[in-house]
Design a protein that fits this description.
The chain has about 230 residues and is mostly helical. The protein is about 65% helix and about 5% strand. Helix 4 crosses helix 6.
């Protein structure tokens, strides 16, 4: 009897999917989001202390000298002053740097010897190219990251549309055929993994990558890994 139970258990273990489910991927993503948020906060504080605080003070002083106020309004004169001041370009550069922190985090780690971010490493999964189970290059990992962020553009668009037209969420997503189409595309983009055999997302399909259960043998992301080493 004990032998039969062992055989059944062994069979179920062998048949277990090698691909992590949506809950496991979501849990790993949540951990990574917290880590990236902390990293971006640190970088933003450093940028502020190094040069942004002084640029902001210079802008407020010059703006007050010209207009007699520190409150920026949506008048042509105020807008023209802002977009031609170094403050405007400094803010754009800082935003780009802070946003790119996340891109570097995901791209460097997913293309590293770990083949996983910290969250995915803790959740026991790796990213592999479908051709040969090899690790993705930095360029492919960067493409994978930016494709994964596309749904946020839709959310950003919905928020702007709501504020501009003073509509609720349902009226916004059904306001036009384009809004309905983008809504369906958004759902498919983030939920297609529920119906795919390998539990892949739309950006996994485009990049020809898959997440699998397991870990590489590398102790650190920068560790040297022999060619063909299995995880």
């Amino acid at each position: 009897m004990a032998m039969n139970i062992n055989k059944i258990f062994a069979r179920k273990t062998a048949e277990e999917s090698p691909f992590p489910g949506s809950f496991k991927r979501s849990s790993a993503s949540m951990m990574d989001m917290v880590i990236v948020l902390v990293l971006r906060s640190v970088v933003a504080q450093l940028l502020g202390s190094l040069f942004m605080n002084q640029i902001i003070q210079d802008f407020l002083t010059e703006f007050h000298d010209k207009f007699g106020t520190e409150t920026v309004k949506s008048t042509p004169e105020h807008i023209d002053f802002v977009i031609h001041h170094k403050f405007f370009y400094a803010v754009l550069i800082c935003y780009a740097i802070v946003i790119f922190v996340g891109a570097l985090y995901y791209s460097l780690l997913n293309s590293s010897a770990w083949q996983a971010t910290i969250g995915k490493r803790l959740s026991n999964m790796v990213i592999v190219k479908n051709s040969g189970n090899s690790r993705p290059s930095f360029g492919l990992a960067l493409e994978h990251y930016f494709l994964s962020t596309l749904p946020f553009l839709y959310i950003f668009y919905i928020v702007i549309y709501q504020n501009a037209h003073k509509t609720n969420f349902f009226d916004t997503i059904t306001a036009s055929p384009a809004n309905v189409f983008f809504g369906i595309l958004f759902i498919g983009w983030v939920q297609i993994h529920l119906i795919t055999k390998r539990k892949v997302t739309a950006y996994d399909l485009i990049c020809n990558t898959t997440f699998k259960k397991g870990r590489t043998a590398a102790k650190f992301p920068w560790s040297r890994v022999e060619e063909g080493e299995e995880f």
